[in-house]
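#struct-help
A.M.: can someone run this one for me? Single chain, 613 residues.
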Amino acid sequence: MKKHTLLFTLTLSLLFITLWMSPANAQQADKPKVPVIKDGQAQVVPAFEDTSKWIRHDLWVETNFDSDDDGKPDRVHVDVTRPAETEAGLKLPVIYETSPYYAGTVSGSDIFWGVRHELGEKPPKRLHPPKIDRRDTSPIISNTHIETWVPRGFVVVHSSSPGTGLSEGSPTVGGKNESLAPKAVIDWLNGRANGYKTVDGNEKVEAYWTTGNVGMTGTSYNGTLPLAAATTGVEGLKAIIPVAPNTSYYHYYRSNGLVRSPGGYLGEDIDVLYDFIHSGNQEHNAYSDSTIRDTEMANGMDRITGDYNDFWAGRDYLNQLEPLKAAVLMSHGFNDWNVMPEHSYRIYKAVKEQGVPAQIYYHQRGHGGPPPLEMMNRWFTRYLFDIENNVEDDPRAWIVRENDNSKEPTPYEDYPNPDAEPVTLHLTAGAPQQGGLTLKKTKGEGTESLIDNFSFSASDLAQAEWTDHRLMYVTPELREPVHISGTPSITIKLASSKQAANLSVMLVSLPWREGRDTKITDNIITRGWADPQNHESLRQSEPLEPGTFYTLTFDLQPDDQVIPPGQKIGLMIFSSDREYTLHPDPGTEITVDLDGTSLTLPVVGGEKAVSND
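D.P.: on it. Structure tokens below:
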């Protein structure tokens, strides 16, 4: 990564003392104990490293909403960890993480929805779990980020989301209170909201020890909430680093009209997540369960059709970005099949188009994975200390290549790679074995069919030499590396033997590899799912006329991967995906019109890079 040398001079150190220390303390100080910036990054300061001198305390910040309907504004629980020097007048910026997880969650999978039923049927009722045995989080909610950032001259703040831990309110899983709660904390840090020593008392607590500049970060749900806060446009939130954030609950629990579970959590839905995190005050459980889970969610989530609607639109942060001003550094894994990589890309693309400073870091692993500390430090130093370290001039995209260390990403001008061009590949017949995937389109390839059977996993189907349960189309063996960068898409013309069918697509690298040395990038390139009933509208599905052909086009998950020579790129089309979709009775026949079906890949170098000529 590019480095810029920036040293605090004696003059700047004296300026810190003048501005941030009282006159009395300034006269007594033999040596300034202030942040040190070098090479564009906040450095560890020995005076801030002594954990025995850290000041740690908790409080409750009052919000402007009453989500548990008890007649008074909800208060959210907050903890603070800061260097002792802040008691002598030193003011520092804040690194802030908020979460619904700190006080504990439900364990076990018996609360998930059953997936073994026909498409379009009302699913059987699910069990609601006993309430969470809440962990005590007072006065310290969490120790995350403290050892990293306090020694570097930041105050670290945590808070529990509404309806979790010692915070009042109701969990809403993407509702407005999840955006307004961290906004209230940032308002308190800037003197615009009230903090109190107790959840129901009147003794106020002031944040006299901060400059008011705030940066937020976190992973997964904890990465969603910085984005939620930023969509309020709150003054003082200068930068966010969301790691693997869920930016749309529709995209998390549905896919192009299809009811689709996040990877590893078959049968989870938004009301399951509500139960999973609801660790707050049990006195208000009955109201929250009835109003949020059993009414708002039950009426809006729609596990029958999977259609997009106003309920889901209200939990899609892409629809709320206009007020966002905070600089955004997104981080995600291309092989994250829980919170899939589209979540970060859709926000990165939008905020960049708004003119907001934006960068993106992608790695090749699964869920989680923050950017390297150096990258995060430069981002927070630039926007929280207001140090001109030229981070805006750094490359926009940083991608960890397949065999590289996650701390050593390769810089690119942008993502997708600006040199990537759409390459359309066409299908030639070959079922039940393998057909072809070619640059040249031929006519008269006819139709080929598969029989749905959820009993077989996608990986089993990809490895099968001969099967009626999937269609596979492959390129010739690659002579040169093929660099895919961007979002592949598929246009597929199909007919179903029933009024509803699952549709799953996986892009694979063949031959399939197994064994101890197999890497996460060796087999699955990317994947996607769709409901053929939504071929015309995401908001309005319609039953399929058995035997009638329909054409639909949809995106697969974004990717950036180099497929090595000697491999073949395979397009696998199948129906139910055992690990992600509902499991209807086997037997549905899906027929694909090969002439009306094509795959478009974003390839660096375009057709020439794919051609074996």
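A.M.: thanks! The first helix runs from residue 10 to 20.
D.P.: also worth noting: DSSP finds 14 helices and 29 strands in the chain.
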